[in-house]
Amino acid sequence: MSEHLRAEFEKYLARFGLKPRKLPSRQLREAGQRSVIGIKYEEAKARGDPMAESILIAYEKNRERDLAETRHPATIEIEETAKEVEATIRALPAFAGRFHDDVFVGEFPTGSVNCQTVKVDGGFLVLVNSGTLMMMQQVVTFLWRGNADDPNSKESLQAAEGVAEVLAAYVQHGDPYYGPKPLAGGMLGVAASLMTAAARKFVVAHEYGHILASHLSEPNVEPVKLETEVGRLDVLRKSYAQEFEADDIGYRLTLGVAANEDFDLAVIDAGYSDGLDAMRAGLSQKSLIAGPFVALTVDAILRRFYDSRRLAGGKVPPGDAHPPADERIEALLARCPGKGPRHSGFIKFPFMLLPSWERIVGVMTDRIFGEPPPPPAVEDNDQGDGAVWLDDIMRCVDVIRAGDYAAAALSLTDSFEKQRTIIEPDVDVVRRELVRAALGRPSDIGRTLLDRHRDRRAAEQYVESAARSPFAQFAGSVPGGPRLSVAGLADLGLNQEPKGLGLVQAVMEEETTKRASFGAEVHLLDAVLYAWRGERARSFASFQAALAAGVADLHHRLADFVVLEERALALGVELDIQKLLEVVGLNAIGDNKEAARRLARLVKDYTEYLGVPLGPMAQRMVDTQMQVE
Ligand SMILES: [Zn+2]
């Protein structure tokens, strides 16, 4: 990419009254990033993807750099893609020797999914239709939600539906920003981003193919007029033969080889057996093979859409001069490296759309020309919520980075509380209040717990009455039907995996390796972190360490808690009044007198410590068991 030509590009835009994309405000970008990251993370986490936490870690690592960027994200994508293509050209002598021109790749509303090239003073401008590269990403993310082996499966049809919405927004607004924004995180996100990169690379590399094959610098090359919504462009005329040649070169550039036979298939083979890095490398190679077919399948579907409009007498943009996409696909399939689906299996992803093309064209027509679409249904992902918990976690990360562990512990304690429900074990309430008290924030454990018990009791009564309704009784008799019970309610509250803790932990580890000794605040922060992750023994050890480091402990509240928790750990029970009463009862019925006695004593000491009175029945049971010899 030539920097000199950037000025030429801006001059060219100005001729049509256009300007390069403007960057939104920092605040808007940060909010946008967080909502995207939050959705990606929750999507990956919901699938149990092992890479979910790394999404947050990568976000945190690149946050400042991304916010300091002065170019629009769409501009960055285009420029990065062009840089990559040029790097490939320079690395391959067969192409490097033929590359003599200055080129700049930029966004322009050409109205065609294929790039256009115009000649300007000092070189060539490759014009990518506005939104094309963004659109590729959204199409690919939907493709990865389908079942490539079965284009007629429910998932594949849903994926086709999503692609139709993306293409409708692309055609209508020249920018898929207005369409659905599918997001995938974790391994699925990695696979989708590798395939997106390959599809984008081919779109741009095809145009470099024309340049390398000197299609644009032959003396008799003549300009043709291309009508666009902003005016008429003089683009350079190319023959079908030249288009196929540009596809051939574009495919080799996408693969990163001088000849298709050079493509390293062993990397794909190793990916099937050699661990995560090898798997990623294999995925990448398979994506490169499939990339051009994503771009060309989109082209094929858009052509069918325009054909159907033309048949219906509608006004359509004049087609660009590229050969029909179906023929280009056929020609490239013959050059595809590898034997069989083991290597080229990802091609099935874009091809999954072909049996659904009529449906896709139908949906696009409805969206663009039909009735206004119904208001969007309630999204699965609550974006507002996603941004809120992530804001809390990032605030905590920021103060850890600033070395203020007390503020970090308090902030983590607050997010912990926000993400939990009234069904959580009461000992987690106690742990949070202890941390707050130790850090000088006023706290009244007994009061807080009593409020919680009242709310909890109200919720339980609601569930009990709901469970008595005839419908609930019917539902309960159906296998897999909803379980309406107090126990079920507790499950409901705690199945929620904590969000964002992997990031906090990673940042903590990174920061603490920089410091030789830790203050009590670090141990308190650890105690909250481990409590939230359900790692009781480590939370206990962190509280002990905080005490050893001389933490402020008014009235020995923390020291007394540590003693109680040590007893609970030894008895294998959790410090939760309701659960403790249950195990006292169970042991009493099972005639485990000694266990019942020790547990009853623990209940008595724990409730006295909290200042929470037991109900009369529970009190009698505890008293009785404590006296049993
Ligand atoms: Zn071309």
Helix/strand layout:
Elements (H helix, E strand, L loop, with lengths): L2 H13 L10 H21 L5 H17 L4 H19 L1 H4 L6 E6 L7 E5 L2 E7 L2 H12 L10 H20 L12 H27 L10 E6 L2 E6 L3 H16 L10 H6 L3 H37 L13 H9 L7 H4 L3 H4 L5 H13 L13 H19 L3 H15 L6 H13 L6 H23 L2 H8 L8 H9 L6 H12 L7 H13 L3 H13 L8 H15 L5 H13 L3 H18 L5 H12 L2
Bound molecules: zinc ion.
The site of zinc ion has 7 residues, from helix 8 and helix 9.
Structural class: mainly alpha
| Spatial shape | elongated
Largest beta-sheet details? 3 strands, mixed
- Catalogue the unreliable spans: 375-384, 469-493
The count of domains is 2
Q: What small-molecule ligands were found?
A: zinc ion
Average pLDDT figure? 83
Radius of gyration based on Cα positions: 31 Å
Neighbour order of strands in the largest sheet: 1-3-2
Gap from first CA to last CA: 88 Å
* Number of continuous helical runs: 28
Number of strands: 5
Helix content: 55-70%
* Amount of beta strand: under 5%
In short:
The protein is mainly α. It contains 28 helices and 5 strands.
Descriptive overview:
- With 629 residues, the protein is mainly alpha-helical.
- It has 2 domains: 321 residues, no CATH class; 189 residues, no CATH class.
- Helices cover 64% and strands 5% of the residues.
- It contains 28 helices and 5 strands.
- The strands form 2 sheets. A 3-stranded mixed beta sheet has the order 1-3-2. A two-stranded antiparallel sheet has the order 4-5.
- Strand 4 and strand 5 form a beta hairpin.
- Helix 4 packs across helix 8, helix 16 runs antiparallel to helix 17 and helix 17 runs antiparallel to helix 18.
- The longest helix is centred in the middle third of the chain and has 37 residues.
- It is elongated, with a radius of gyration of 31 Å.
- About 6% of the residues have low confidence.
- The structure holds zinc ion.
- The site of zinc ion has 7 residues, from helix 8 and helix 9.
